[in-house]
Every structure is written in C-alpha cells, then in structure tokens.
Amino acid sequence: MEGLSPAEIIAILDLAEDYVAQNRQIDKKQSLLRGRTQINLFFESSTRTRTSFELAGKRLGADVINMSVATSAIKKGETLIDTAMTLNAMHPDVLVVRHPDSGAVNLLSRKVDGSVINAGDGSHEHPTQALLDALTIRRRLGRLNGLTVAICGDIMHSRVARSNILLLNTMGARVRVIAPPTLLPVEVERLGVEVHHDMRSGLADCDIVMMLRLQTERMKGAFVPSIREYFHFYGLDRDKLACARPDALVMHPGPMNRGIEIDPDVADDIHRSVIREQVEMGVAVRMAVLDLLSRHLSNRPVALAQ
Ligand code: NCD
User: What is the pairing mode between strands 148-152 and 208-211?
Assistant: First the structure.
C-alpha cells in the first residue's frame, strides 16, 4: 500500500467492482490471462488469501500452480533466493508470495523477472487485504473519506493493520487503534492514528470496527496476562459494540478466534458483521490486481490515473 496514490486505489477498487459482478454470474471465467502462468508461493499457512488468489487467477484464465512450504525443497534447506531463481527459470508471469519475514517479498521481487504480489510479509504489509477491506466498506457506506475506523487488538504483529492504516489515511478516513500498550508498536502515532487503550472510549462514534486476531505465532513471550482477561477488556461483544455508531459495521480479516477477540454473537450478526462479504471482495480485488499487472506485461494501457 505504501506509495499508492488515492487515484490508484480508486482505480483498483473500481475495476474490482466489475469482477464482483462477474463472480456472481454462473459463468465466472474469462481469458484475459490465457497463456500466463501464476505461481502461488506460500511460506506461511493461509486459507482465504491463497484460495482467493488461486480462484482469481483461474477465473481470468491463467495456469495457476500452488506451492506450499510443507511439500517444497525449502524443507530440504534451499534458501529463499535459490527457490525464487529456480521458479524464475520456469518463466512464471506472476508470483504471489507470502512469507513470515517482513521485507522478504520485496527482496524476492528484485530477483525474478515476472510480477510479484505481496500476499503478506511478516508484520509489514498485506496490501490486497487492505484493498478488499476498502472495497467492502465503500460498497456498504458509499465512501471512505471522512469515516472513522477503529482497528482493535494485536496491532503490533499485524500486517493487516499496517496496510489498512496506510490505505485509510491515504483515502481521508480517520483511523483509531485500540489495544493494550503491550500490543502496540513503538511510536504508533507516527503512522497517523489516534491511540486508545480503552475499547469503550475508542469505539465511540466509529463507523467501522475492525477486529484483529492475537497473532501468537509472531509473539516471543506473553503479551497479555490471560485470554480471559483479554476478552473481558478487548474482545468485541454487544456491550462494547453499543459504544460505536448504531449502524457501525464489524470486520475481521480472518481467521477468527471466537471468544478471544470477538464474541460469536457479534461475529454472526448478519446486520452488523460483513466478515463473509470481505471474503467475497477478496476474490474480486485480487482479480483486479492481476488484471492490472497483466496490462503491464502485455503493454495494454494501464488505466491508473497519474
Ligand atoms: C491475516 C494475515 O494472514 O495476515 N489473514 C488473512 O490474510 N486474511 C490475519 C491473520 O492471520 O490474523
């Protein structure tokens, strides 16, 4: 997300709208990426992101290969760069990469010839997640500009939070982060957010409540005294949600840990929760990104404004 202009973000979201419509038809397939090869290279587990990138590529007609660490030579000690060079020799047009280290995807992109899409690198960025969240919000509320969005929970380890903060600030929304001090990165204010440690005051007048998972796999040591206490103070339940605007929407990138950061009652509320819609938008946004990259590959004009 870093460096994308408002016009570029709007162009991606507008294109994604077309794909939302296409994905709701019986025939969902196009031949835009016919003859192109897309490799999904996931060094970390994933349900939504990997599946939606696979569907996105296939619906645009690309040949899509999925590689996961569990079955690759990385298990035999091959380095990231050697794996990238090996795959590069097979002439993929697009590599979709998820890696546990911040910056790894950028490094890899400098070693291969095709386009590289960041599907999440460490606690750094997850740009297509921020785009799908923006599309979900824009479709529901008609705009991003001027909205107040609260991002709650494990901000420190969250690439979703970082990319969302960048996008929302770029698009003129106000961003609040709500978390215990132990789960906030140092100098978080410098990201252009308002910081709250109390859910009730932080949620006051919010249009959007975005919940995050406690990302224990990235934690070294204990960051919260106990799960019970965490849910009591920071878990989103009806009571706390009542502090937000009456029509505030509840979002979560998934995977959800019910009863830890979110009460099942709120997560499953069809009037407030747009969590499943986020998943649907994920396929459309990823198709839009692949579409734009393919224009670059074939010298078709890229419709992004300057
Ligand atoms: C997120 C991720 O992997 O960063 N999930 C996702 O892509 N939908 C958030 C998470 O793992 O908690």
Answer: parallel
For the question of residue 48 being annotated catalytic, the response is: yes
Ligand 1 atom, smallest distance to 254 CA: 8
pTM of the entire predicted model: 0.95
pLDDT per position as a tens digit, 99-148: 999 999 999 999 999 999 999 999 999 999 999 999 999 999 999 999 99
* Cis preceding-peptide flag for 255 (omega within 30 of 0): yes
Q: Could you give the C-alpha distances from 292 to 236, 259, 298, 303, in angstroms and in order?
A: 37, 39, 10, 8
CB 237 within 8 Å of CB 272: no
Which residue, 38, 44, 8, 67, is CA-closest to 297? 38
CA distance linking residue 246 with residue 235, whole number of Å: 18
Question: In this structure, how many other beta carbons lie within 10 angstroms of the beta carbon of residue 163?
Answer: 25
- Could you tell me if the CB of 129 is within 6 A of ligand 1? yes
What's the longest Cα–Cα distance across the chain?
A: 56
